[in-house]
Amino acid sequence: MHRRTISIVGVIIIGIIAIITYNVWHRAQAAKQFVQSDTPTIFVHGWGSSAHAEEKMANAAKHAGVTNTIVRANVDRQGKVTFNEAIPAHAINPIVEVNLADNKLRGYTSNYPAGYKHGATYVKNVVLALERQHHYRAINLVGHSMGNLEIINYINDNNGDPNLPRIAHLVAIAGHYNGLIGQKTAESPINQQTGEPQRKDATIKPLMTLRKTFPTNTRVLNIYGDKKDGSHSDGDVPVNSAKTLKYIINGRAKSYQEVEIKGANAQHSKLHNNSQVNRELINFLWHK
Question: Fewer CB within 10 Å, N or C, the chain?
Answer without folding.
Answer: N
